[in-house]
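Tutorial, part two.
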Amino acid sequence: MNNLSIIGSGKAANGLNRQPITVGISACLIGNKVRYNAGHTQSRLCLDLLSKCFTFTSFCPEVAADLGILRPTMRLTVDSTSPRLVFSSDESFDLTSELVNGLQKNSEIGHLDGYILMKTSPSCGLDRVKVYQANGHPHPLRTAGVFARALKKHYPLMPIEEEGRLQDDTLFDNFLLRVYAYSNFKKEVLERPSLHHLMVFHSSYKYLLMAHNQDKARALGRLLGTYDGGSLETLIDDYFRAFIEAISKPASRKNHTNALFHILGYLKHNLSPIAREHIVIKIHNYNKGLTPLTTPLTLLKHYLMQHGTNYIKEQRYLEPYPEKINPMAQYL
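Running the prediction step on this input gives:
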């Protein structure tokens, strides 16, 4: 299985992207029998929900490294900062380079918009993977699997998450947001680089950035505002890194509340006092944890569609990814 196998419709559900969103996935999660015992760990979350909007490309680093499907179990040894991958029954064979080479040989991975990994795997686990010491006991610190570590090193900006963590609604939401933002940036800026396209992209993400990290949002604005006509490539690279860092963690309730009130300001001349007070109450209730984010957000979107300017209607904060892809959104 040196080539990636492809599943899922990958259709753009709401026009946010003109091309499919393509996400890599550990082959065992889509039901391929590639585990050491010829089994799989099929993920219904990925197959039943995410495949409706993503095109999945599956990959098994162990199979790509020609370790076979029926193979001894493996584990990480030595230390958590520079672990070795070995067979549990025979630690004399260092398998680390084989898995890293499998990644380097697969040029298709660089075109992906994100990656979903199998949790706790010594090759694919994103974190919390056990590392065994010479005495046979697990090291107190845990780490990433060999393939996951190499993936993060080669593609540090790519959204990467474990399937198990996607069961958490907040992490699920943030991963989807990052995948779509990453894909949007590649298609709207990297594929047609210009200062204008970069400014348009930044403008569309203004309130989403505000909701995630106000300090970094302001820093990105300053980065663009102080551009003096130097290297455009450097500007785009610096912006992309800072942008991905700004949205890397879920937005806080406080920052969401701030963004909601800023957006409400665009309706101050179009709402009756009663309608405005109704929205204000819903925002305060969200801030107190009494209602989900979708309650004030839906109200705002309703009035913005009637009275909002094109600028505010085009804010991706209002719909960072297709609503139907996240049945848990009502709880955020």
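The chain has 13 helices and eight strands. In part three we will examine how such features are distributed along the chain.
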